Amino acid sequence: MNHERAIHRLRERRKFRVRKRFRGNAERPRLSVFRSHKHIYAQVIDDQIHKTLVSASTCESGSSYGGNVAAASAVGKTIAERSLKAGIKQVCFDRGPFKYHGRVAAVAEAAREAGLSL
């Protein structure tokens, strides 16, 4: 089996295992985090209507590199501010196939500090 294909299959299994525990709804949407090598992205999603309510990423800031913990903290703070402005106070945190460690944890901690309830 192709090595990249096996890794992709394992990531998909982890993602489904994490997401089957909860679904985002109107009172508590899902805060989904995706990290790449260069950037980190966060979205608040309502799964009942299949819409992204609020989003933030390191691409918006105009910096060429956003793959560090400081940039992830900035994204967490931004997503929390935008969520609170949109009237969203509570979210379910969806780490996807990523460990709750490093940049993913930094997004969650910064969102909590900015007033969002995870």
Total strands: 4
Mean pLDDT: 91
User: Which CATH architecture is right?
Assistant: 2-Layer Sandwich
Query: What share of the residues does DSSP label as strand, in percent?
Result: 15-25%
Can you write the helix and strand succession as a string?
Answer: HEEEHEH
Q: Roughly how many Å apart are the termini? A: 39 Å
List unreliable stretches of 5+ residues: none
Structural class determined from secondary elements: alpha+beta
Query: In one word, what is the shape?
Result: globular
Strand order of the largest sheet: 3-2-1-4
What do you see in this structure?
- Helices cover 38% and strands 19% of the residues.
- The protein is α+β, with helices and mostly antiparallel strands and 118 residues long.
- The protein has one domain (3-113): 2-Layer Sandwich (Nucleotidyltransferase, domain 5), CATH 3.30.420.
- A four-stranded mixed beta sheet has the order 3-2-1-4.
- A hairpin with a 4-residue loop joins strand 2 (40-46) and strand 3 (51-57).
- The longest helix is centred in the first third of the chain and has 17 residues, at 3-19.
- The protein starts with a helix and ends in a 5-residue tail after the last helix.
- The mean pLDDT is 91.
